[in-house]
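Weekly sync, protein design subgroup
Attendees: M.S., D.O., the rotation student, P.L. (late)

Item 1: inverse folding check
M.S. brought a backbone from last month's batch and wanted to see whether the design step gives back something sensible before we order anything. D.O. pointed out we never logged the input encoding, so this time it goes straight into the notes. Structure tokens as presented (220 positions):
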């Protein structure tokens, strides 16, 4: 039993070391210039350890993005004095999410490279599926699983195309408007009143100015 417990602890340590090394290298070199061999060397693990714990490089991305969003969710929930619906929760979290990425050049480079290289369906699934289900629950919207799938695809595709266009010509965009729009794509399609989206956009901007989120890191 003790041997099994020690092996489990060793496994957790190895996985965390791989994740930490990946974040450091992604931050220093970007997504495109970071290889699995570089991660192996930085984490001081065997090459086989990476696919064993993460299967592929993209799985590391999924953990990074999901952990990052989850940390922001916890921060938002900690600061809210009263219960809020899932749409406002995600709006508040999204504003901080994009601010943290945008305000650090290395974070922004990594996010840009991933955006051009990957569909965020793979990266943020099933996190965003849960978010969309919660929208439907909180606003009493009856949707089939097929409709939710289409919303997921529309959200991922629309978000990626908008971000790619933004990175090609950032001067043509107001960054706050961009965040507000991509956060409200699915809720608006679901039929949630657009005035709700506008109100939540205003609240999210004010909230991001008031709360201290400096302890939350995207990469390092």
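Designed sequence read out in the meeting:
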């Amino acid at each position: 039993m003790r041997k099994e417990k020690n092996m489990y602890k060793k496994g957790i340590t190895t996985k965390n070391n791989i994740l930490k090394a990946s974040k450091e290298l992604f931050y220093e070199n970007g997504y495109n210039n970071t290889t699995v061999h570089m991660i192996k060397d930085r984490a001081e693990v065997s090459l086989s350890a990476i696919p064993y714990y993460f299967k592929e490089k993209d799985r590391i991305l999924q953990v990074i993005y999901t952990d990052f969003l989850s940390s922001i969710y916890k921060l938002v929930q900690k600061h809210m004095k009263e219960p809020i619906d899932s749409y406002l929760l995600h709006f508040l979290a999204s504003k901080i999410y994009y601010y943290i990425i945008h305000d650090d050049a290395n974070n922004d480079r990594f996010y840009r490279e991933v955006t051009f290289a990957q569909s965020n369906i793979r990266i943020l699934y099933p996190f965003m599926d849960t978010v969309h289900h919660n929208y439907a629950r909180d606003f009493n919207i009856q949707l089939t699983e097929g409709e939710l799938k289409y919303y997921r695809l529309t959200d991922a595709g629309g978000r990626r195309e908008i971000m790619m266009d933004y990175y090609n010509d950032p001067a043509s965009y107001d960054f706050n408007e961009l965040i507000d729009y991509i956060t409200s794509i699915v809720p608006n399609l679901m039929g949630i009143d657009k005035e709700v989206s506008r109100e939540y956009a205003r609240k999210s901007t004010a909230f991001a100015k008031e709360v201290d989120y400096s302890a939350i890191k995207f990469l390092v």
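Discussion: Residues 58-210 form one domain. The longest helix spans residues 2-29.
Action: P.L. to compare against the previous round before Friday.
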